[in-house]
């Protein structure tokens, strides 16, 4: 079907047009096109940008590193500079760069297992390795994950204290993305860490988005990281880099991790584009993240007000006051209808209110993630409410059509 023909059918219910798989593929393509042509948006993921747009990021590389230095080879040069930068930011002795977070955390916890003599890793049922990594801990690294809780929040001290078997490491995802980018209070986090230490376990932070947590905790990064024995961070989730990750911790641990990085195939010949993009993210995006978090709270309140004014039966912003610049929005409608209306709204108004896909957590329910970035700082609460009204108008047409 041509794009024009597809557009003429937008008023029909999705299920009446094409099979689910094909329809969702086309919807995704339309959403990406709408993202690229949008004149206003709250946030835009790097993965949806063109190659030209992504390559333009390196135009700032000379501001963060001497480009007359030799290119990196197998982890030296600019990669070492990035490692030193991360270690300093997190207040740790050293850091190791990895091409992926999946590899980084496997290696970190494998090394801790050797030190503690216990390969059991206590973690949340929604933790990234449990949900999104095809059981890599057990299938690749000889680790044994044990779930502390499946509640949509971080584990409590009582749950860690009451775990009925020994564990060598407690892994805490901060924030817990699949539960709504949620964080514990500072007091709750420190108590959980203390209990883990009482149980003679090390504490590892899955801090892919830890960069976003300082506003909620009201603490600097190094003070937050100081609670953990090791900390993993990502360079693309919050910082808009090309990819890559790092783990910071004691120098002896990091030295061993670099040995295992080589064995896992992570010591890549040259990684200067990724390392430079990470340094740019640390220079440009990291200082802005607190502003994004604060503005996400304005956006969240305006979304609630806008949906209420538009006559939607109920709307849930989760958390009610976002802990980071990312949060969930829940609506009481079929996810396919909501997704179609969201794309139509973006196509017709050039305003991208919802940049991410919609999922169906249950019948008659739709949930998406809202991500507020630099491009969203210009939105006022009234701008959000107007966009919501425009979207709901199309949603009602979609449902009744």
Automatic annotation (TrEMBL):
A Pfam family it matches: Beta_elim_lyase
GO cellular component terms listed in the entry, alphabetical order: cytosol
InterPro entries in alphabetical order: ArAA_b-elim_lyase/Thr_aldolase, PyrdxlP-dep_Trfase, PyrdxlP-dep_Trfase_major, PyrdxlP-dep_Trfase_small
Domain (Aromatic amino acid beta-eliminating lyase/threonine aldolase) ranges: 75-304
Region of interest (Disordered), ranges: 1-26
Keywords assigned by UniProt, alphabetized: Pyridoxal phosphate
Family classification: Belongs to the threonine aldolase family.
Identification of the protein by name: Threonine aldolase
Species of the source: Streptomyces cupreus
């Amino acid at each position: 079907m041509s794009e024009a023909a597809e557009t003429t059918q937008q008023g029909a219910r999705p299920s009446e047009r094409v099979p689910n798989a094909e329809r969702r593929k086309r919807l995704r393509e339309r959403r990406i096109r709408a993202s690229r042509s949008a004149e206003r948006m709250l946030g835009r993921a790097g993965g949806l940008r063109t190659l030209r747009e992504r390559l333009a990021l390196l135009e700032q590389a000379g501001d963060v590193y001497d480009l007359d230095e030799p290119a990196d080879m197998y982890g030296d040069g600019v990669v070492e500079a990035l490692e030193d930068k991360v270690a300093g930011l997190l207040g740790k002795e050293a850091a190791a760069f990895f091409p992926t977070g999946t590899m980084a955390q496997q290696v970190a916890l494998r090394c801790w297992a050797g030190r503690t003599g216990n390969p059991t890793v206590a973690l949340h049922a929604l933790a990234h390795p449990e949900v999104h990594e095809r059981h890599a801990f057990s299938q690749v690294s000889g680790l044994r994950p044990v779930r502390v809780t499946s509640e949509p929040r971080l584990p409590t001290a009582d749950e860690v204290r009451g775990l009925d078997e020994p564990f060598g490491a407690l892994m805490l995802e901060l924030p817990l993305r699949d539960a709504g980018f949620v964080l514990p209070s500072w007091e709750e986090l420190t108590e959980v860490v203390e209990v883990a230490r009482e149980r003679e376990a090390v504490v590892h932070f899955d801090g892919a988005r830890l960069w976003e947590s300082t506003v909620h905790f009201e603490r600097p990064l190094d003070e937050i990281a100081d609670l953990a024995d090791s900390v993993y961070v990502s360079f693309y989730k919050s910082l808009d880099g090309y990819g890559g990750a790092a783990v910071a911790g004691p120098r002896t641990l990091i030295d061993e991790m670099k040995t295992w990085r080589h064995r896992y195939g992570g010591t890549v010949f040259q990684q200067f584009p990724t390392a430079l993009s990470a340094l740019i993210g640390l220079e440009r995006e990291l200082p802005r993240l607190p502003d994004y978090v604060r503005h996400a709270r304005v956006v969240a309140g305006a979304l609630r007000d806008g949906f209420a004014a538009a006559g939607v039966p109920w709307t849930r912003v989760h958390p009610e006051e976002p802990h980071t610049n990312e949060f969930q929005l829940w609506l009481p409608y079929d996810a396919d209808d909501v997704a179609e209306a969201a794309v139509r709204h973006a196509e017709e108004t050039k305003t991208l209110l919802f940049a991410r896909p919609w999922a169906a957590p249950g019948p008659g329910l739709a949930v998406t993630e809202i991500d507020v970035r630099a491009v969203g700082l210009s939105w006022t609460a009234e701008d959000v409410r107007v966009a919501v009204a425009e979207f709901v108008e199309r949603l009602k047409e979609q449902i009744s059509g």
